[in-house]
């Protein structure tokens, strides 16, 4: 069915579990990518749809899939500040240290955007605080640039 990918991506975006379940029953490819490389899981996570994310993961969605820029679902929720979804992704094998095209990690996003609960969570779960982006900056450097002293303290403790 030609509309299936669009329907799957839309259902993930709005958290429509009934549609997602029907598509899953029909063996929909849960790891499809839209023209920007977004998967249904990336879209569900970025739009704070934890139940949709949980359903997609349970049925085989790749938690480490990346969009065309190399951004993963974990990076998206670190940017947005969705700690509950970050925990779900981590519990299901999300790689804490993946880097996008410019070398950024989920920890860097959390530090840059003041998501200090996520900074704590990612550090507790073992995120590497020494990774540098393409400019040679670590998460602590990025937090300092943003005036996020709490994150600097967490990252340098």
Properties at a glance:
about 160 residues, mainly alpha, about 55% helix, elongated
What layout of secondary structure does this protein have?
Blueprint: H1 4-14, H2 17-25, H3 40-46, H4 50-58, H5 73-80, H6 83-91, H7 106-112, H8 116-124, H9 139-145, H10 149-156
Helix pairs in contact: 1-2, 1-3, 3-4, 3-5, 4-6, 5-6, 5-7, 7-8, 7-9, 8-10, 9-10
**Poorly predicted spans:** none
Order of helices and strands: HHHHHHHHHH
Let me know the largest β-sheet.
none
Give the fraction of residues assigned to helices: 40-55%
Please compute the radius of gyration using only Cα atoms.
16 Å
Number of strands: 0
Number of helices: 10
Q: What is the overall shape?
A: elongated
Mean pLDDT level: 96
The class by helix and strand makeup works out as mainly alpha
Q: State the end-to-end CA separation.
A: 53 Å
> Percent of residues in beta strands?
under 5%
Keywords: ANK repeat, Repeat
Organism: Pedobacter boryungensis
InterPro entries: Ankyrin_rpt, Ankyrin_rpt-contain_sf
Protein name: Ankyrin repeat domain-containing protein
What does this structure look like?
The protein has helices at residues 4-14, 17-25, 40-46, 50-58, 73-80, 83-91, 106-112, 116-124, 139-145, 149-156. The protein is built from ten helices and no strands. Helices cover 54% and strands 0% of the residues. By secondary structure, it is mostly helical. Helix 1 runs antiparallel to helix 2, helix 4 (50-58) runs parallel beside helix 6 (83-91) and helix 5 runs antiparallel to helix 6 (83-91). 43% of the residues are buried. This is Ankyrin repeat domain-containing protein. ANK repeats lie at residues 36-68, 69-101, 102-134. InterPro entries: Ankyrin_rpt, Ankyrin_rpt-contain_sf. Keywords: ANK repeat, Repeat.
